[in-house]
């Protein structure tokens, strides 16, 4: 495949020329593993910078919010609406201070989780009002949607077993199985409602097969976007 540089643009009234590619799914689906592989592979295909980031935790403020959100503490459990607002605050900071400037510069961004996680976890998982979450996502993102979302689909039990095997589990991972199953149902509904944007990938395949599938999908997208010939 031939490389093609992305046009760099930015500033008032200029278009965003970069691309936002999001990895989603329940715990232990293999997002981090695949993002690292995709970053190296994509960077070999294009002169445009390919950058990895995550939500929560893509900024300094976000790192603090991530710690507060994921550390387990018994004294004062985080209330569901407070949790929702903390994820939204992380996103607002991430978009304004990190994602938007890079997208204006023509960067390809690989982001571990984005707005669909809030719908799946706080909406389907916690049971908070979906239209409220959509409004909040709109405020935090200012309308910035992913160009493509890759949903790494694994059974909840398989994903949680993988995270347990990895070591200490965080506050969200400690939630009960029924919660994680509702989250999974959320991702399923989102994928059904957004077939153009969200592509499901079988995350139970072996790591190399998952990578091959992602590369195939991304190769087609990069051609469609005019980023490779
Ligand atoms: N396809 C796969 N088959 C088997 N194990 C896998 C696969 N992909 C990843 N793993 C393993 O599962 C664990 C979780 O993977 P990873 O951290 O990439 O998932 P994740 O989606 O980022 O998880 P989390 O959202 O919980 O941080 C790791 O130990 C990783 O090596
Ligand atoms: C963005 C976002 C994330 N979450 C949850 C999902 C996970 O349990 C953690 C993030 O950790 P991981 O290493 O990426 O798995 O936070 C959420 O509940 N709502 C969100 O909007």
What's this model, at a glance?
The chain is of the alpha/beta class and 229 residues long.
CATH topology descriptor:
Rossmann fold
* Net shape: globular
Percent of residues in helices: 40-55%
> Looking across the biggest beta sheet, what order are the strands in?
2-3-1-4-5
Kindly report how far apart the N and C termini lie: 6 Å
Percentage beta strand = 5-15%
> SS-based structural class?
alpha/beta
CATH architecture: 3-Layer(aba) Sandwich
Query: What count of structural domains?
Result: 1
H/E element order: EHEHHEHHEHHEH
Tell me the CATH superfamily. P-loop containing nucleotide triphosphate hydrolases
List low-confidence stretches.
4-10
- What is the residue-mean pLDDT, rounded to a whole number? 94
DSSP E strands, number: 5
- Give the number of helices: 8
Bound molecules: adenosine-5'-triphosphate, the ligand Cc1cn([C@H]2C[C@H](O)[C@@H](COP(=O)(O)O)O2)c(=O)[nH]c1=O
Q: State Rg.
A: 17 Å
What profile does the largest beta sheet have? 5 strands, parallel
Per CATH, the class reads Alpha Beta
SSE blueprint:
Elements: E1 19-24, H1 31-43, E2 50-54, H2 60-70, H3 80-104, E3 108-112, H4 115-125, H5 130-141, E4 148-153, H6 156-166, H7 177-193, E5 198-202, H8 207-224
Parallel strand pairs: 1-3, 1-4, 2-3, 4-5
Helix pairs in contact: 1-8, 2-3, 3-5, 4-5, 4-7
This protein binds adenosine-5'-triphosphate (ATP) and the ligand Cc1cn([C@H]2C[C@H](O)[C@@H](COP(=O)(O)O)O2)c(=O)[nH]c1=O.
Keywords: ATP-binding, Kinase, Nucleotide biosynthesis, Nucleotide-binding, Transferase
GO molecular function, one term: dTMP kinase activity
Protein name: Thymidylate kinase
């Amino acid at each position: 495949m031939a490389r093609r540089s992305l046009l760099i643009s930015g500033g008032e009234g200029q278009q965003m020329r970069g691309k936002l590619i999001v990895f989603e799914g329940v715990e232990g689906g293999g997002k981090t593993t695949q993002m690292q592989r995709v970053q190296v592979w994509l960077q070999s295909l294009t002169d445009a910078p390919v950058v990895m980031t995550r939500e929560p935790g893509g900024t300094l403020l976000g790192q603090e919010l991530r710690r507060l959100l994921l550390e387990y503490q018994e004294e004062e459990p985080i209330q569901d609406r407070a949790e929702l607002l903390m994820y939204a605050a992380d996103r607002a900071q991430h978009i304004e201070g990190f994602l938007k400037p890079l997208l204006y510069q023509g960067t390809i961004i690989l982001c571990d989780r984005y707005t669909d996680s809030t719908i799946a976890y706080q909406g389907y998982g916690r049971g908070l009002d979906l239209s409220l979450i959509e409004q909040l996502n709109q405020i935090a993102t200012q309308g910035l949607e992913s160009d493509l979302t890759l949903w790494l689909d694994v059974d909840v039990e398989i994903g949680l077993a993988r995270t347990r095997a990895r070591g200490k589990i965080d506050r969200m991972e400690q939630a009960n199985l029924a919660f994680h199953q509702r989250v999974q149902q959320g991702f399923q509904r989102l994928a059904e409602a957004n077939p153009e944007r969200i592509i499901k990938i079988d995350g139970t395949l072996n790591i190399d097969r998952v990578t091959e599938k992602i590369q195939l999908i991304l190769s087609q997208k990069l051609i469609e976007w005019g980023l490779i010939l």
